[in-house]
Amino acid sequence: MVIISIVAERAKGLSLGAACVLQKPVDRLELATALASLGLLPWRKPPATVLVIDDDPAATALLSSYLESSGHRVICATEGREGANLARTAKPDVVLLDLVMPGLSGFEVIDTLKRDPATQSLPIIVVTAKDLTREERDALEGHVLRVLPKTAQNDVLSEVRRALAD
Question: Does residue 141 belong to any structural domain of this protein?
Answer without folding.
Answer: yes
